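Chapter summary example.
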Amino acid sequence: MAVEEDLDAETLRGLGDRLRKLRAERHMTLAALSERSQISVGMLSHIERGKSSPSLKTLDRLRIALGVPLASFFDTDAGQSQERSVVTRVHQRSALLFSDSGLTKELLSPAGHRELEMLILSIEPGGSSGPDPWRRVGEKCGMVLQGRFELQVGEQRYILDEGDAFQFDSAQPHRFTNLATGTTRVMWIIKSEEAG
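The structure predicted for these 196 residues follows.
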């Protein structure tokens, strides 16, 4: 258990460092980022110092405010090699753990890509995207690799089992919940028109 807590703390510190770097590259103060993201200066400071775990919604607001893809918050070495700009080896995947919502996001996309993001979502039993629906300009699609989950797009609810695939306009409100008794794993692909 201590190892998981150490990894979680290490992940938080790394995320905070990457957020601080992205903000500095844009010559933004905490106050300016707070105004653009509608996240308090205090919360931003806690995230940058690795003292607070941001929710998925918070990361999405930061992504939009900074004009970067979600992949920017993962631990990637964009300047490594030509291969790393095209290929992500299984042992090179970066992951973010959102323990409050029972989600882990593994980045499959190689470093440096902005318009298309490929992830594997691991959703623990009872885990979900949260109570409030998401909206994002672009498109989302994916396939259930393991388990079973409910996808709600607009007013429609869909139950997806292993091997089932989906695609939708992500400007529609949407959310998901794991319905399996074990972990559900979903390959998730996001085409964003906002990052840039």
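To summarize the output: The helical segments are 2-25, 30-37, 41-48, 56-66.
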